[in-house]
Specification:
single chain, 117 residues, mainly beta, 6-stranded mixed sheet, 4-stranded antiparallel sheet, 0% helix, 49% strand
Amino acid sequence: QVQLVESGGGLVQAGGSLTLSCAASGFTFSTAVMGWYRRAPGKEREFVAAMGHTGGSVHYVDPIKGRFTISRDNAKNMVYLQMSSLKPEDTAVYYCNVHPAYSYFYWGQGTQVTVSS
């Protein structure tokens, strides 16, 4: 049974930093491309970043390039998202999942990130 548990969100001022964590289980994590996604208030969930199963092949969407860093630990079945220089428009619920992921996939609860101006 797939489980994805995101944590590390919170309230932070603009310009601040947060590191999100995701604990994955129920599938072969070490062979999966993993990604981070977010759903801002009133918007659809969107892709943010992804990393290949060996830690290479990293992809970021333009709005977060240079500010967010995705990483993973295959020994612990964990994926991380280091976020810095946060902006109010980064406010969203953040989710991890395999990449690509679709709406009908299992999704965890996500972790709320709120950036105040």
